[in-house]
Amino acid sequence: MSGGSGLPRIRIRGLSKRFNSNVVLEDVDLDIMPGQSTTIIGMSGSGKSVLIKCILGLIKPDSGEILIDGENWLQLEEQELLLRMRRIGMLFQGAALFDSLSVWENVAFALLQQNTGKEEARERAIEVLEWVGLHDIADLMPAELSGGMAKRVGLARTICHKPDIVFFDEPTTGLDPIMSDVINRLIVRLHKDSGTTMLSITHDLKSAAMISDHIALLCHGRIHRQIPSSELDSDQDPMLRQFVEGRAQGPINCSHWGKKIEEAIQR
Ligand SMILES: Nc1ncnc2c1ncn2[C@@H]1O[C@H](COP(=O)(O)OP(=O)(O)OP(=O)(O)O)[C@@H](O)[C@H]1O
Ligand SMILES: [Mg+2]
User: Fold this and answer.
1) Residue 44: nearest ligand to its CA?
2) Average pLDDT for 64-91
3) Ligand 2 ion: residues within 5 Å (CB)
4) Yes or no: domain 10-99+164-235 corresponds to CATH 3.10.310.30
5) Label partner for 41 (CA 20 to 30 A): which of 72, 118, 123, 220?
6) At CA 173, angle to CA 235 and CA 43, rounded to 5?
7) Is 218 in the pocket of ligand 1 (CB under 6 A)?
């Protein structure tokens, strides 16, 4: 599934971000090769979403480099960055559809922004809606959808403009196990069919193992360990084992939760 050699599609070097005294990212390094699918796992509050928001330009890091195909996106003018962002697809947690737009207008949003004609955009939207099994709901409004349908519409919107890098923030969180499996299979198929480079965040380890060829553990502000997904059950790194086995006690420092809770779980 992973492909390519040479220049990483995404290269992050020394990325740091703090909010006042809260040091969230401290010297994050991460490489994702073209066509690779990497999932970042890590405790709640470890900075996974902040990391993706930094890459997407939604949060400005304090220092570091974000290189996409060798180009430092942090040094681009706003207009240049907006142009580059056309290559990106993003599935937000909870789908984040626009309430006032119909399903097909949501799906075709990036195309309509890029001045694609209405008819052509609608045709492409229906094509990708078909791909997620929802071609007959193009004219419904987001309020008329179930959570699982909204997630699939969000997935269709993510890929409608044929991005070559996609980000998935918690693609299966809040879904039942069967719908989670549907979403995971769609993501795997997308990856196989298009060779898109993917960066996902999830708490769902089954999903991580299924949709990605590499897994990176974000811990104490850094990418502590990066392994092939096939080694998730066998890797002996103590922090990775603590996270995978879901143990409150271990080397992952929980002190940011406060002294009382730390004392309680150490007892
Ligand atoms: N805009 C912001 N302003 C101030 N602090 C923020 C902001 N965004 C995130 N943080 C802080 O950064 C830390 C990491 O947050 P982040 O949302 O990245 O966690 P996460 O790893 O995605 O957690 P979860 O798994 O619960 O989604 C938290 O302590 C959070 O309070
Ligand atoms: Mg998050």
Assistant:
1) 1
2) 91
3) 49
4) no
5) 72
6) 45
7) no
